[in-house]
Amino acid sequence: MRPNGIYCFNFHRIGDAQGAEFDPNLFSCTVDRFEELLRFFSTNFECISIDKLIQMRQNNTPIDRRYAVITFDDGYVDNYKLAYPLLKKYQLSAAFYIATNYIDNPSIPWWDEAAWLIKNCEKGAIQLPSWLEPINIDGGAIEDSIRDILRKIKTDSQATMNEKLAQLRLNAKITMPLKVKSTNLFMSWPQIRELAGAGMHIGSHSCSHRILSHLDKEQQVQELVTSKERLEHELATEVTSFAYPVGGTETFTQETQSMVCDAGYKLAFSYISGIIGSFSSSCDYQLRRIAIDNNCSIADLKRILINCKVVAS
C-alpha cells in the first residue's frame, strides 16, 4: 500500500541493548529482529546498493517501484560480526559509513562516553554551564535520560565537543576507568576491507564525528576531505558517498552541502525522515533516511512507513 520511492533504512548497532555498557539507544535491533527485517525488505522492495542509487540518479531513472537501501552509521564492530553474515545470507548489499578517527585510533566516542558518565553518575541531575536548567537522571528510565542529555549536548554549539565532555565529567564527578576506555567498539581496517571486497559500500562519516555545523569552514573541509582520502587509501577505491554525523536539520548547512559536493562525493545522507519520491539536484546532498531503532518490529515499521512523507531528493 506504500507509494513507489526509495526507502533508505538506517541502522547503527545490532545486538541486545539490555545491559549495554554504553549508549543503549544506539542499538537498532537484535540479531533475530534484523533477520526479520531483511526478509521484509527482500519481500516488499527491490533492494539496491548505493552504487545502483548513484547510477539511477545520474541517469534520472524513473522511480517506478519501491526500492530499499540499507545503511549503517558509525562503524561499530557488531556491524561486521552480526549484520554482515546475515546480509551475505540474504545476498543483500548495505552501506557502512565510517568515522575514520575511531578506526585509526580506537577509543570510546564522545556520545558513548557521555552515556557511560550518565549511567554511572550518582548525582540526581546533570547541568552543563550553558544550560538554563538541569536535566534529572533519577526516577525515570536511564535510556530517556541519556537521550535527553545527548540531545542537549548535540544542540549546544557554544562549546566544542571536547569542552562539553570535560564539563560533563566534572559535573558527573566520575572518570571512566582505563579498562572501560580500552573497550574495542569499532571495526578494524581489515574488517572494513573485507566488507568492501564482498560488495558492501563504504562511505565517509567524517573523521571525528563532530557536528559539522558547529565547525568553521576550514574544519569542515578537513573532516570531509581527510576522511575520504583515508578511506580511499585503505580501500584502493573511490569513496562516493557521505553521511552527516548526527544528521538532523541543524547539523549541516547549505554551505556544508556545497563543501560535500566540492570534496568529490556524489551524494550525502541526512538523518531526516522521509521517502525519496523523485530526484532533485538541490537535494542530492541531503537525502533522507528512515531510522530503525528501539528493536523496531515489522508492525512498528509498517506504522512508521504509513506516516513517512514522500519528498523529492
For the terminal residues, how far apart are their CA atoms?
Answer: 21 Å
Number of strands: 14
Tertiary shape: globular
- DSSP summary: helix tally: 12
Under CATH at level 1, the class of the largest domain stands as Alpha Beta
The ordered H/E elements are EEEHEHEHEHHEEHHHHEHEHEEEHE
Radius of gyration: 19 Å
The domain tally reads 2
Strand content: 15-25%
Name the CATH architecture of the largest domain: Alpha-Beta Barrel
| Main beta sheet | 6 strands, parallel
CATH topology of the largest domain: TIM Barrel
In CATH, what is the homologous superfamily of the largest domain?
Glycoside hydrolase/deacetylase
- Helix/strand-derived category reads alpha/beta
| Helix content range | 40-55%
Mean pLDDT: 95
Poorly predicted regions are: none
